């Protein structure tokens, strides 16, 4: 049994696709497969240019969630994505690897599938880890997004490199 196929992987895929957008449908397929979220070859469906457009729209909506200025705005934006991309949950064992939940009908285009995964994964991430667990990097000059998966919920940087760069900047400012 799978407990949550929509969790951190889907949110990390959103971070990945926002930080380094897929340029083609083939690149989107590859990036999804690498993240373990979508494997188009198992479903027998090819990723199309229309799927890429759908994912880009969903990511634009997702960035609004990241940039929300307060909890209620963030909740409202996530709920709008859920209303747009998901449907009532259903149990499935489509791949024969165990029963799990889907929040979409079977046989949807890949773009809709990715949008459903990102919106549901984001809602579960925020509800389970904390409503403030998405953000933009705190390093001056870096605008990348992050999903805070840390134990303490104190992540402020998109990467260890940015964290180190900011620590060096702060140290130099103190010693100057």
Task: List its salient traits.
two-stranded antiparallel ribbon; mainly alpha; two-stranded antiparallel sheet; about 180 residues; single chain
Describe this structure in words.
The chain has 176 residues and is mostly helical. The strands form two sheets. Strands 1-2 form a two-stranded antiparallel ribbon. The chain is 55% helix and 7% strand. It has helices at residues 8-19, 25-35, 40-43, 49-66, 71-85, 110-129, 160-175; strands at 90-92, 100-102, 134-136, 145-147.
**Strand order within the widest sheet?**
1-2
Q: Could you tell me the number of beta strands? A: 4
Weakly predicted, low-confidence segments: none
Q: pLDDT average, as an integer? A: 89
Element order, helices and strands?
HHHHHEEHEEH
Output the number of helix runs.
7
Radius of gyration of CA atoms, rounded to a whole number: 17 Å
Strand content: 5-15%
Helix content: 40-55%
Largest sheet: 2 strands, antiparallel
Layout of secondary structure:
Elements: H1 8-19, H2 25-35, H3 40-43, H4 49-66, H5 71-85, E1 90-92, E2 100-102, H6 110-129, E3 134-136, E4 145-147, H7 160-175
Antiparallel strand pairs: 1-2, 3-4
Helix pairs in contact: 1-2, 1-6, 4-5, 4-6, 5-6
